[in-house]
Every structure is written in structure tokens, then in C-alpha cells.
């Protein structure tokens, strides 16, 4: 071998041959970097799990709220259907109360009036309300116009007479009032 090649081999050996102190420092640095990297990964995982947990909790709260709203809405529709079935009975009571009576029939009519009042009080506890129509402006959401009549007493497009009582349940119209409307 030539002298130049020997020098080259010595230089290469010095560069590639590590010392004992350098190896321990490198291993310590690598271990510290690995611990720091693992800590960062754990923090990211923790943040991800916290985020998922909070989203899941919010989704569950929204689900409970929606379910309760749907239950209340369904109960309102069922209540409206049941009360709707009672409306013909109320109509018959109103017709009976509207008839004039004397003597023994007057006593019988007074009993009918008391029963009608008790029934209306009980139904109003459950959300049934009579639509007040006479003297009110015509509203197609609550009134069903049967005819238009001239009147000096009321303004135009005002309800002047109720032919059949209308009802609402918890603010929702279950039967519009049949009315006469001023021209």
C-alpha cells in the first residue's frame, strides 16, 4: 500500500471509531428524545379522547332534549285527538243549555248547566280553550266563515256570530269556530 492510502485509512478509522463518553451521551440524548416524543404523543391522545368525550356528551344531551320534545309533541297530539272526540258531547250540552225552559224543565236545565260548567272546567285543566270569536277580526287559522252578512254593529271582516264553537288545545286549533263574518 502506498503511504497516501495508509493515511486515508487512519483518518477514516478516527472518524468512524467513537469514544466511550460520546456513545453514552448519544444514548442518553436518544432516550430523552424518545421520552419527550412519547409524552407529546400521549398529550395528543389525551386531547383527542377529551374532545371525543365532550362531543359524545353534547350529542347525548341533544338526543335527550330532542326525545323529550318529541314526547311532549306526541302527548299534545294524543290529547288533542281525545279532546276532539269529546267535542260533539260539548256541542250537545251547548244546544241543551241554549233551549228555553220553564217549571220542572228549568230545574233539569239548571242541572245540565252545572254539568256543562264542571266538564268545561275539567277540560280546561287539560288545555282545552274556547276560541273567542264574536267581535274579533276574522282569522282563517281559528275561524271558518260560513257566510258573509251586512252589519251596522261590527266593522268589515269582523266575526259577528258564532254558529259552532271552536276550540284550541294548548294553543293549537283542533276545531275552528264556524262563524258569520261582516261584509
From TrEMBL:
InterPro entries named among the record's database cross-references: GrpE, GrpE_CC, GrpE_head
One GO BP: protein folding
A GO molecular function held by the record: unfolded protein binding
Main localization category: cytoplasm
Region (Disordered): 1-32
Annotated transmembrane regions: none
Subcellular location: Cytoplasm
Biased composition (Low complexity): 18-32
A Pfam short name: GrpE
Keywords, in A-Z order: Chaperone, Cytoplasm, Stress response
SUPFAM superfamilies given in the database record: Coiled-coil domain of nucleotide exchange factor GrpE, Head domain of nucleotide exchange factor GrpE
Annotated GO CC locations: cytoplasm
Summary of subunit composition and partner proteins: Homodimer.
NCBIfam families with a match to the protein in the record: PRK14140.1
Function: Participates actively in the response to hyperosmotic and heat shock by preventing the aggregation of stress-denatured proteins, in association with DnaK and GrpE. It is the nucleotide exchange factor for DnaK and may function as a thermosensor. Unfolded proteins bind initially to DnaJ; upon interaction with the DnaJ-bound protein, DnaK hydrolyzes its bound ATP, resulting in the formation of a stable complex. GrpE releases ADP from DnaK; ATP binding to DnaK triggers the release of the substrate protein, thus completing the reaction cycle.
HAMAP family: GrpE
Family membership: Belongs to the GrpE family.
Record protein name field: Protein GrpE
Gene, per the UniProt record: grpE
